[in-house]
Design brief:
Elements: H1 4-16, E1 19-26, E2 32-38, H2 44-51, E3 61-67, H3 73-81, E4 89-95, E5 98-103, H4 110-120, E6 127-131, H5 137-148, H6 159-167
Antiparallel strand pairs: 1-2, 3-5, 3-6, 4-5
């Protein structure tokens, strides 16, 4: 977890590399995460070196998973980060009654992640999954399409996609 002075240093480092933090979050495991907007001149390898941290493009989906039965944490970690875990799970960190999961959606869908979690919790069902940052429209529509088994659900079907320009005063 970044202290206030460390966050200020991280913001200066982002600025120096052509990136601007737009959101910050702290996971239940204590890790700090930021979403950054990159300029075309931004060099990701220089950014990683300057920050001394991992920088992922595209951004990972980061969720805290809180099972109803905290004794299931160890088996969840094994199912997600072990040898047979989903390839898109970048990292899993347990802390107390929860675990933080970092997911690369280019490799593994959010739907598959949730399915693995629910399968592991089958003998003791119940969990909360809390995204650290709002999920993108593409993530939400992909999740809905997979959950409802309706592949025709895509970004073009989101009402918000069509109404947001109207609300912002764009020409009709």
């Amino acid at each position: 977890m970044l202290a206030q002075g460390e966050r200020a240093a991280a913001i200066r480092a982002l600025d120096s590399c052509g990136a601007k933090a737009t959101s910050w979050a702290v996971a239940r495991c204590g890790r700090s995460y930021a979403i950054a907007r990159l300029t075309p001149e931004c060099d990701l390898s220089a950014l990683r070196e300057t920050l001394g941290a991992r920088a992922d493009e595209p951004a990972l989906v980061v969720v805290d998973v809180i099972p109803r039965d905290p004794e299931r944490i160890g088996s969840l970690v094994q199912a997600l980060a072990g040898a047979g875990g989903p390839a898109g799970v970048v990292d899993v960190k347990a802390s107390g009654d929860a675990l933080t999961v970092e997911l690369n959606q280019a490799t593994t869908s959010l739907r598959l992640l949730v399915d693995v979690i629910d399968a592991e919790l089958e003998c003791s069902p119940g969990r909360r999954i809390l995204p650290l940052f709002p999920l993108s429209d593409a993530t939400l529509t992909g999740f809905a399409a997979a959950t409802l088994r309706a592949p025709e659900i895509d970004l073009s079907r989101l009402v918000e996609t069509h109404t947001e320009p109207l609300l912002e005063g764009a020409p009709r």
